[in-house]
Design brief:
Layout: H1 3-13, H2 21-32, H3 53-62, H4 77-94, H5 98-101, H6 108-121, H7 126-132
Length: 135
């Protein structure tokens, strides 16, 4: 997928009350470089937001009635973004933060928030901001 595709998908599917579309776009880039088919060979992390079986189960236990996801759906970009952004709010409010819940340790979100600020302030050059995430 390309940036414009992801931007439109995030705008339509971001369920987070805590995180901006730009943050979600940067997270998706950091996790998968916009590859909706991404799978981690060492864990069950799947899709744009690298949702694990446990994370999907947690979302299902903490979302409104009628909201339900299957881990097998995480390669569907829209469902992955919906589930993943619900998870971001759960992580922030119940699990000790995104740094902890994504299992990458302290400082995980620093490059994402820098990228988020860059996207918000320079929307003409989004790929420049995104490429800095991997430096």
């Amino acid at each position: 997928m390309i940036y414009d595709d992801i931007k439109a998908l995030v705008a339509e599917n971001n369920r987070s009350k805590e995180f901006s579309d730009e943050f979600v776009i940067c997270l998706i880039w950091k996790e998968t470089n916009f590859n909706s088919e991404a799978r981690n060979s060492k864990t069950s992390a799947t899709g744009l937001m690298q949702m694990t079986i446990g994370a999907v189960d947690m979302v299902n236990k903490n979302t409104p009635a009628g909201v339900h996801f299957e881990h097998a759906e995480m390669t569907d970009a829209a469902k992955a973004i919906q589930c993943g952004t619900y998870y971001l709010d759960i992580a922030k409010n119940r699990l000790g933060g995104v740094d902890v819940s994504f299992g990458t340790g302290k400082g995980y979100t620093k490059s994402i928030t820098v990228c988020e600020d860059c996207l918000k302030n320079d929307s003409e050059h989004p790929m420049v901001a995104l490429h800095k995430i991997h430096m």
